[in-house]
Design goal:
The protein has helices spanning about 1-20, 40, 45-50, 95-100; strands spanning about 60-65, 70-75, 85, 95, 105-110. With about 120 residues, it is α+β, with helices and mostly antiparallel strands. It has one domain (about 30-110). It is globular and about 30 Å long. Mean pLDDT is about 85; it is low at about 10-25.
Length: about 120
C-alpha cells in the first residue's frame, strides 16, 4: 500500500524536476547552410546585414521552409509597410514574406543591431 501512495509523489517530483531544468535556448538553430556562422560565412547575408547595420528597427531571421533553411529581413518600425524576400542559403529569392510567412517553421531572429528597438 505504501508503494502505491509513493508512485504519484514520484511522478510529481520527476515532472517538477523536468520543469526546473528547462531553460531558454538562445543558440542559433542547427543546420544553417552547413556553416558555423551564417552571418559571417554567407557573403550575400553578410552584405545584406551590412546595409541595415545602423537601422535600429531592422533584424534578420531564419526559418525552415519546405524542409530547408531560409533567411529573411524584418523590421519592427511601426510606420513601415513592407514585405521582404525569403532567400535560401545561396541567396536565391524564393518569394516574399507576405506570400510564404504562414508556411515558415522554427522562426528565429539571428541578427539585430545592439541598439535595436525591436522587442523580439
Amino acid at each position: 500500500m505504501k508503494t502505491i501512495l509513493k508512485l504519484p509523489q514520484s511522478v510529481i517530483l520527476v515532472f517538477l524536476l523536468g520543469l526546473i531544468s528547462c531553460e531558454k535556448d538562445d543558440s542559433l538553430p542547427t543546420n544553417l547552410c552547413e556553416v558555423q556562422n551564417p552571418i559571417q560565412e554567407l557573403e550575400w547575408l553578410k552584405e545584406a546585414i551590412d546595409e541595415v547595420r545602423n537601422d535600429e528597427y531592422s533584424y534578420y531571421s531564419t526559418a525552415l521552409y519546405q524542409g530547408r533553411r531560409i533567411f529573411f529581413y524584418g523590421t519592427c518600425d511601426p510606420l513601415a509597410n513592407y514585405a521582404s524576400f525569403i532567400r535560401n542559403c545561396a541567396g536565391d529569392n524564393l518569394g516574399d514574406t507576405n506570400e510564404l510567412f504562414d508556411r515558415l517553421l522554427e522562426i528565429k531572429v539571428i541578427w539585430k543591431p545592439e541598439n535595436s528597438k525591436c522587442n523580439l
